[in-house]
Structure formats: C-alpha cells, structure tokens
Amino acid sequence: MKAPAVYISGIILLMLMDWTGAIQANSTAQKQGHCPRRLNVVPSKRACVCDEDCPGADKCCVFDCGAVCVPPAFTKPGVCPRRRRGSGMCAEFCANDSDCPKDEKCCHNGCGHSCIAPYTVKPGRCTRPKGTPMCAEFCYHDGQCPGEQKCCRTTCGHSCSEPC
C-alpha cells in the first residue's frame, strides 16, 4: 500500500513544480512609469492583462472603461510650491507631471492643477518658531530664500531663516 501513496505523492509534486514553473515563466517585469490618474488619451489597445500585452512603452492601466494600454506617467524631481487655497485658477490643466513641459510639475495651484516650476528642498531643519508673533508670509518655499536659508514657519506665517 505504501508504493501507490509514494507514486501519487510524486505525481502531485511534479504537477506542483510544473505549475509553479509556468507561473514564473509568465511573470514579467513591469514597464517604467506609473498609470496616469485620468484617461486623457486614446488607448493604443483595449482589454490588456499586464504591461507585456501593450505595445512599446505603454502600460496596462485600469480605468472606468476597463483595462487599456496607455502611455505611462512619470514623476519629475522637485517639490511643488505651497499655494494658498482659492488663489489659483479652478481648472485642471494637468493630471500628472508627464503632462507638463520641460522640468515643470503638475501641482495644486490653490484651486485646480497646473504646470509649475518646482523647487528643491534645501538641507537642514527649521527651528521651532519663538519670540514675537510674526503674521506674514515672507516666503512660500526654500527656493525663495537666499543661500542656505530655508523657508520656515513663524508663529503665524513663514520667513527665511538659517537651518539647524
């Protein structure tokens, strides 16, 4: 009785190994970039399952209409500047950094999204606000401050100061 059990166990083991190998053979590396937030182009192909199903650099992305092949979105380096609520145009001029020319990023403009030149965060940390209340916005980001200074929070605003 032990021989048939060993024989059946061996067959099951071979089937599992074959099944596992098939999964590894079908797994592919994802293409660069990420899926855009909105579908704003005509898909190059419909009904995809993975990136490999899509032509060229296109990615397989899921939207309300199902899975389709579209050009990938990329995140550009830099940081979007802070904006005050209600200060920008209430329109969506971009959905991803990929929609913007040159080095510009798709940033919240205070109401909608538009392409804006980013800034680089300077090294160091801001000190805790102290002293006389300063309620003014002298800067919005590090890029507006001279030299090594950073745009730091004051008691009720922001100003350029030396980092710690």
UniProtKB/TrEMBL annotation:
Pfam families: WAP. SMART domains: WAP. One of its GO terms (biological process) is innate immune response. InterPro entries: Elafin-like_sf, WAP_dom, WAP_four-disulfide_core. One of its GO terms (molecular function) is serine-type endopeptidase inhibitor activity. The keyword Signal applies. This is WAP domain-containing protein. It comes from Albula goreensis.
